[in-house]
Design brief:
The chain is mainly alpha-helical and 456 residues long. Helices cover 75% and strands 0% of the residues. The chain has ten helices and no strands. Helix 5 packs across helix 10. The longest helix is centred in the C-terminal third of the chain and has 92 residues. It starts with 56 loop residues before the first helix and ends with a helix.
């Protein structure tokens, strides 16, 4: 097979048929066929040091024809004129080299058209599946000739179709993996050869779908990042507010025991002063009752009244202090309840924001995944466009071999799937319908018999 012109080293000189002066013709014998049994082997021809180290079969044949055509008269009469025309020989050398390179390019192009992979699926109609393999793959046998065997045939088809559907589903999953692997190779090819596509004006149009897909992917990613950052900022703000509200609730609850203690002390003082005043009043009533027997009853009454009057400001003060403590405690309770309600509202807002965030980020993530899938598909299509160029853009042999192997894997999976699909459709519809009709009729008769037995 001819080598690809793209991978030829820059300093390599192709083998050419060079015309030389008759005075410098060197006798070279081309290797002939292997001698037959009983025939003597041809004599080897010695090569002088100035002879070419290697000659192709075409060179040997050309020199052999020149030896047969050359004669002594030609060498004597035209030898000097041939040496004088060296410039013409140089021009012939250049023409021969150009023709040789063109021929090699043509041969390489023909071989590349056969060897280059396509990166595409083979249509199902073009897949060749042997009929014998289809018959062997179907789970049911041939169509029955007897009407009594049709129900069994219908049941076999029903069960066989279920097994074939399960097998096709498994092969579809395998096919998806093989296609994804091939698309990855095509995308890598598009990525490594993108600079070549950018430089070639005729190939830039192949990059337009890829650029559009990449733009959509970047927009979707920016939208997702922006939404995520916005929700993160709102969550941070709500978290700070919730922390402040909870801290104020704790502070309020810590001040309540002190206020309760002050209120209890004020109420205790008020009750003590009231009790003292009540004792004085009781003593005053006792003095009044025994005033006839007591010479200083009036003086005692005056003294008790004065002492009771002294207690009135103290009682009023303790009651006022108790009322103030009671009012302060009520205000603190109201403040605590308000801050608790505020913290619950913040928590509720956080839950609503979390649900909203989950919904919106899920939608944005789906958009990013769809855009990423579109980018992969666009890269794969760009890789297929590179392969369709058949060498317009140079591709390494290792990359071509990897893509060719991936194509073969996909084709193999497609063949197995097509075999199952065709096997599923390879059945006798008339026998199947007759079997189904017999089964349904039998079921209907059985139901009718059961109903009649229950009625009677």
């Amino acid at each position: 097979m001819a080598r690809d012109e793209r991978y030829r080293p820059e300093n390599e000189i192709p083998e050419l048929v060079v015309a030389v002066s008759p005075k410098r013709v060197v006798e070279q014998g081309a290797k002939g066929p292997e001698p037959k049994a009983g025939e003597p082997a041809p004599k080897a021809v010695s090569k002088p040091p100035e002879a070419q180290p290697a000659a192709t079969a075409a060179t040997a044949a050309s020199l052999g024809s020149q030896r047969q055509a050359a004669s002594a008269g030609f060498l004597d009469d035209f030898g000097s004129a041939f040496e004088d025309d060296m410039l013409g020989n140089d021009m012939a050398l250049e023409v021969a080299a150009g023709d040789h390179r063109a021929a090699m390019r043509s041969e390489d192009a023909e071989s590349s058209l056969v060897a280059w992979p396509s990166g595409c699926d083979t249509p199902a109609a073009e897949l060749e599946v042997p009929e014998e393999a289809i018959r062997q793959q179907r789970p049911w046998g041939d169509a029955p000739r007897s009407l009594l065997h049709c129900p069994g045939y219908a049941w076999s088809v029903f069960q066989g179709e279920r097994r074939l559907d399960a097998a096709v589903a498994a092969i579809d999953a395998e096919l998806e993996v093989a296609r994804r692997r091939r698309d990855e190779l095509l995308g890598e090819l598009a990525r490594t050869k993108r600079s070549w596509l950018e430089m070639d004006e005729s190939c830039r149009s192949a990059l337009e779908p890829l650029r559009s897909a990449e733009t959509l992917f970047m927009d979707a990613s920016r939208h997702l990042n922006s939404a995520s950052d916005s929700y993160a900022e709102q969550f941070a703000t709500l978290s700070r507010e919730l922390a402040e509200a909870q801290a104020s609730v704790v502070e309020t609850e810590q001040s309540l025991p002190s206020l309760r203690g002050q209120l209890e002390q004020a109420e205790t003082d008020a009750r003590r002063e009231q009790a003292r005043r009540q004792r004085l009043q009781i003593e005053a009533r006792a003095v009044e009752q025994s005033a006839a027997n007591l010479p200083d009853a009036q003086e005692q009454l005056t003294r008790l009244s004065a002492r009771a009057a002294e207690l009135d400001p103290l009682i009023a003060e303790t009651e006022a202090r108790a009322a103030a403590c009671r009012s302060g405690l009520a205000e603190k309770n109201v403040e605590r309840d308000h801050r608790l309600q505020k913290s619950r509202q913040i928590e509720q807002h956080q839950r609503e924001l979390d649900r909203q965030r989950s919904t919106q980020l899920s939608t944005a993530s789906s958009s990013v995944k769809a855009a990423e899938s579109a980018v992969r598909q666009a890269r794969a299509e760009t890789g297929r466009a590179i392969l369709a160029g058949q060498g317009r853009i140079p591709v390494e042999a290792a990359e071509l071999e990897a893509i060719r192997d991936a194509d073969q894997r996909v084709r193999g999976v497609l063949l197995r799937r097509e075999l199952l699909v065709r096997a599923r459709g390879h059945r006798d519809e008339n026998a199947l319908r007759r079997g189904q009709l017999i089964i349904l009729t039998g079921c209907a008769l059985l139901v009718l018999l059961v109903v009649l037995r229950l009625v009677h």
